[in-house]
Design a protein that fits this description.
This protein is of the alpha/beta class. The protein is built from twelve helices and 13 strands. It is globular.
Length: 318
């Protein structure tokens, strides 16, 4: 199948490719009705793909879904959103993963049913090489590396293909300690940072990875590990961008935030679109920062992902 797919890939191939794990989301919608969950969609790299597509990117996704109702719903979602699904495989022997979001005084909390999911069975041999080789940017995440050893190997193989084709490699460590122990995560993540062009950690994750609360020390450590561009995402406080010679602190936007699920993923997708649109990394981060703020103004990972007009309106550039 992959040989046929590679030979059929044409100039209409996506410029942005994401690889990873999609999930079905059940989000606790109202605090006064704690047993009411609204079905939606999630998975960090799926969110990145949809965010980028809504913002004008030509995007494709590499993953596996179960040959079940949830897998079909995800395929329909990506097709509606304009995400190329030719590199999505259906697995008849494994389910599509699911997660639940609850909301409380300390923010949102996640609980997952993803063990042995279809996405966790992705492996290097099944990668559609031509898809990656024709892309201008590959985006991967630490979650994709943590869900299984074969998925971790697939991420490494995809990065090697992208680097050989001189594509930009974008990486969000997206640390999830429920999936793997910190020391293994740190080893894999540091190895990956050495191979990426754009590193997009959250401050929360980076504090654990680098054992420091200092944003400047974190940025220096990520550069030292090998990343050319570092964007440290600081939630409602905005982000800090560094190209190794210049650092810019970008303030957050005052919006009516109700749910931060997927905001960091939205940032990653928006940043990729604007980098490929030939913005410098500081302008790209300002745009992505505004997009991520808008992503917090609705419930769920996908529904509130913004379109370009809304982002430019918030930035005052429309």
């Amino acid at each position: 199948m992959n040989d046929l797919l590679d030979s059929a890939w044409t100039e209409s191939a996506p410029e942005i490719i994401t690889l990873g794990e999609p999930l079905i989301e059940f989000n606790q919608h109202r605090a006064d009705q704690p047993d009411l969950y609204i079905q939606g969609f999630g998975g960090d790299t799926s969110n990145v793909a949809i965010a980028a597509a809504r913002l004008g990117g030509r995007v494709g996704y590499i993953t596996r879904v179960g040959d079940d109702r949830f897998g079909r719903q995800l395929l329909e979602l990506w097709q509606r959103e304009g995400v190329d699904t030719r590199a999505v495989a259906r697995d008849p022997d494994a389910p599509t993963g699911v997660y639940f979001v609850t909301h409380g005084p300390n923010g949102h909390e996640f609980n997952y049913l993803r063990a042995n999911s279809a996405a966790s069975r992705i492996n290097p041999d099944a990668l559609p090489k031509g898809v990656i080789q024709q892309a201008r940017l590959l985006h991967v995440s630490g979650i994709s590396q943590a869900i299984s050893s074969s998925a971790c190997d697939a991420v490494a193989a995809a990065i090697s293909l992208a680097r050989a084709s001189r594509a930009v490699v974008s990486y969000d460590p997206n640390l999830r300690l429920k999936l793997w122990p910190l020391e293994r995560a740190r080893t894999v993540i540091m190895t990956t940072i050495a191979q990426c062009d754009l590193c997009l950690p959250s401050l929360e994750d980076a504090r654990l990875l680098f054992a420091t609360d200092s944003a400047d020390a974190i940025i220096a450590a990520v550069h030292e590990a090998g990343a050319r561009i570092v964007v440290l995402k600081c939630g409602a406080k905005g982000c800090i961008v560094s190209n190794g010679n210049r650092i810019e602190r970008i303030a957050g936007h005052p919006v009516l935030s109700v749910d931060a699920t997927g905001a960091g993923d939205c940032f990653d997708g928006a940043f990729a679109v604007r980098v490929l649109g030939r913005d410098d990394v500081f302008a790209a981060a300002r745009y992505a920062n505004a997009a991520a703020a808008l992503a917090t103004t609705g419930y769920g990972a996908v529904a509130p992902l913004p379109y370009d007009g809304a982002v430019r309106k918030l930035l005052g550039t429309q």
